[in-house]
Amino acid sequence: xxxxxxxxxxxxAVFAATAAWAEKRDVIIQCASTCDAxxxxxxxxxxxxxxxxxxxxxIAATLPAEAVVDLAAASGVKAxxxxxxxxxxxxxxxxxAGGKAxxxxxxxxxxxxxxLGTVELSQAAAxxxxxxxxxxxxxxxxxxxxxGNLGQGVIVGVIDTGTANSPVVPSLxxxxxxxxxxxxxxxxxxxxxxxxxxxxxxxxTVIASHVIFGFANTSTLVRSLKLNSPQSISGPCxxxxxxAVCGVPMIGVAPAAKIYAIKVFDSRGGGAPESxxxxxxxxxxxxxxxxxxxxxxxxxxxxxxxxxxxxxxxxNIGVVNMSLGGPTLFAGRDVEDQLxxxxxxxxxxxxxxAGNDGFTAMTGGSPGSGFGALTVGAxxxxxxxxxxxxxxxxxxxxxxxxxTTHIQAASFSSRGPTADGxxxxxxxxxxxxxxxQGANGGISLVSGTSFxxxxxxxxxxxxxxxxxxxxxxxxxxALVATANPALLGDGSGPIDQxxxxxxxxxxxxxxxxxxxSAFIPESNPNTGNEAVRNNVHHLGFDxxxxxxxxFTTHVSSLRPGQVTQFFVRTRIDTxxxxxxxHNVTPANAPAQQNVLFGDDLVVQITDAPTSKVxxxxxxxxxxxxxxxxxNPQSGLxxxxxxxxxxxxxxxxxxxxxxxxxxxxPKHTAKGALTxxxxxxxxxxxxxxxxxxxxxxxxxxxxxxxxTNDADxxxxxxxxxxxxxxxxxxxxxxxxxxxxxAGRYTVVVNGFAVVGKDQFTxxxxxxxxxxxxxx
Length: 774
Prior knowledge:
By secondary structure, the protein is an alpha+beta fold. 19% of the residues lie in helices and 31% in strands.
């Protein structure tokens, strides 16, 4: 087996000096069959296997950087991918420059708390719908709850930051039955501790809270509820003065369900490696598989306390919620996405958040891109936004902030389609200003697809409780088949809202007929270098057609919250895009527009990477505006125009996109690119050079399905290594300021390549393309 530590180029030991490149690489390895041979290869190359998965032929490993290429050629290795860091769950932030206030607020502590039992819950569901009626008029869960279906007997696994089992979180009293922690270095080792990040507890309360909080009738929350959702107040609530305590229910969709907390994010913040998230999914599958095989569901460790939760080796998990996500090069078919199907196979319905990357197309990540996932986008209702803005800025401001009454797709909610040509998300639920309780007991209005997903998870729990013989796939499919596409009034289509707003009662009725399919649909995509364009074409999305490098169109009458998408194919010869907006015209006269902001157009421009956002510009636009995107990545750049969610009326504009191209781009070298390939190209940088730049292109860029991943390492004359081109970008670029004169060696590594590919390398000194040295 060739070892790269012995590999030299022009007398330079390429990987001997790795100060600028990570000494270790964390990777996820798909095995050809069993992983014995792959694990042995990792050990032989000086690495170690950190995780060996149970339910899929894959391992996670750490090994010397120079050994990754050798590993690709080892027996038993099917594919290698970088172990990327998945961002921690976070609330959405404004999506445009000068954006409006963030969509979150913390409430004052309640004056009273009353935990509800089963009988009280059914009565409350029938009379006082929780969370501004989302259980009633929106997802239509109240009929099931009022009939006594509260999700009893269903266990929901929450893969997140941990879900608190603590007296300070009365909304989940008796709900959290145990948990497991996958963050070994975290000082907080309990998955049910109040010291964890609040996100996973917020998620848990959306699923299964069962409490009424008492707030003063003089509080901003209660005063706003009286204006915007009076049915959300429980019992009498006389006007002030005198001061009185008014009940505000916080009732989850499946308030009698149980939660098993699976912690993958560190209490101190930061992301989680994808390998850890996969391990948590793998563990949930094993717990359910062991239950299916007859293993008793009894605690095998722990005392059941907040800091020492029960741990099980067998558990009848019926639903899993994953309010997290990350990018994928192979939508539907990478390791994480494959495990969504494994969950379905063992009997788990998986709800996954679509992501909070904004309204640009093709930003939904994994595991939501898995075939087995029920991927959930977020909506924003008028009542939710008005109440939030009242809490933030004063009672009455909410009606000025949100003058329209129709439900919208939330502006932060990620959109489809997937790179293999599927509409995404699958369904929608409210994800804006949801009432939730955190790990430390604080009560907040929280926003994000993180909270539309557990709404759907709670819906799945109700269905599993009411139709125990239905399969996990049938529960998922029933929620998709019966979703209401007409509830949103902003013109949202399938890539904005999926099949529509979930309707739990309709899904239950469909399951009762026995006619819901148990088949999980997969895609049959085009593959190859133009595959993404071809895959989305059949969904009705075409790349813009340039005439003389110019594209123009008129965008007419966008409703508040409505979005239109433009896909621009960029290649090796694309040097820049210029996006111009002209004649931005609100339909309403100034006096009839939003009194706080006026009516405007919202613009988001996203670079070519799919399943995530790589922002190249965003703004609220009221006048002629221009955006220049220099050196876009290769693939489909998305230009997205929306009617601002706060608009009072329609808005129109003229769009112009100008592409600038290098008609005859010179190159330094071309060559073959395969899995694990290693090609070196030497260039001589002359004395006096102020800037040297390197660009590595390959055919299987972000416009290809699957997308290939190549790395570019630049070895200086002194042996130091620059790894700025060893990322997940396509192309890879690196710039050296005032480089020393001499011979530089560019190493092109096919890190994750399916089949055969071709690369093109350009090395430039002060803008002049260098020839390869001989």
